[in-house]
Design brief:
Blueprint lengths: L14 H25 L7 H21 L9 H23 L1 H4 L11 H30 L8 H28 L2 H9 L3 H4 L11 H7 L3 H11 L12 H29 L1
Helix pairs in contact: 1-5, 2-3, 3-5, 3-6, 3-10, 5-6, 6-10, 6-11, 10-11
């Protein structure tokens, strides 16, 4: 048989399975390492993951109850601010942790078996699952302790949390690349996003804003997330401004460019740290 007619070399059978298993092992090891580092070495451990958001929610609820007669929705200030703070907190924590994944796992990334994808995926999974668990525990406790007759609508609640996770993944991976390529960007990002808590509908409703503010804040995807999340707790609340296509598109576009930059420049970023 001539050289031209020989069949092309095929990858060894099971290579893809071995690679997927290696990825699973690497991600699992990175998750366990971060859990031990974050919760094992601090007094209180996982309890702080519950106490920090709970403290913020209680302070908001008590503070605004002294200033206002009634919350914008329902009859519980604490529940109202919880429904804004928890999805916002999910986004902030996941995006920040993913953005720092290269720096956190840098020593392990020197091994060929561990890739930047493993490092980012491990931090995304751990912090997303932690955020979901914390939200479940806190909301269950608040609904049990407050005098709120709430009829839960699970699809918008779960949809809002997963959209917050998608947006956080996109922004986190993109910032992971930009922080490594342009260190000053981390400082600029911190300044630019400082008003994000106020601009994401945590302490007010989009519907109560003047038209000019609405036209600007509509382009903040977190405003859509908090509105969708609250829709699942308040049956009479119908936020017509919500655009799921916009939220999904924002998350996917930022994730696409983040993966593109990381795939091209992750070695340069690691070598420059």
């Amino acid at each position: 048989m001539s050289e031209d007619l020989r069949p092309a070399a095929q990858p060894a059978p099971g290579t893809g399975v071995v690679r997927r298993f290696a990825t699973f092992r690497a991600v699992s090891a990175l998750i366990l390492r971060e859990m031990a580092t974050r919760y094992g070495n601090s007094p209180g451990g996982f309890a702080w993951a519950l106490l920090e958001p709970l403290g913020s929610i209680v302070l908001l609820g008590v503070g605004f109850s002294l200033l206002l007669r009634n919350p914008p929705l329902g009859n519980s200030f604490i529940l109202f601010y919880a429904t804004g703070f928890l999805p916002f907190s999910m986004y902030m924590n996941v995006s920040a942790m993913v953005a720092q994944s290269l720096g956190f796992s840098r020593p392990l990334l020197q091994y060929p078996a561990v890739t930047w994808v493993d490092a980012a995926l491990a931090r995304f999974l751990l912090n997303s699952l932690t955020g979901l668990l914390v939200s479940l525990i806190l909301l269950t406790a608040l609904l049990s302790l407050t005098d709120s007759r709430v009829l839960l609508d699970l699809p918008p609640i779960l949809g809002a949390m997963f959209l917050a996770m998608l947006i956080a993944a996109g922004v986190g991976v993109l910032n992971c690349a930009l922080f490594g390529l342009y260190p000053i960007w981390s400082q600029i990002w911190g300044i630019v996003t400082r008003p994000l808590f106020l601009a994401s509908g945590v302490i007010f409703l989009y519907d109560d804003l003047p038209p000019m503010a609405q036209s600007i804040l509509w382009y903040n995807p977190l405003m859509h997330v908090t509105g969708l999340f609250r829709e699942g707790f308040y049956p009479t609340y119908r936020p017509d401004y919500i655009d799921i296509t916009f939220m999904v598109g924002f998350g996917l576009v930022t994730l696409f460019f983040g993966v593109l930059l990381m795939g091209r420049y992750h070695r340069e970023i690691l070598s420059s740290k």
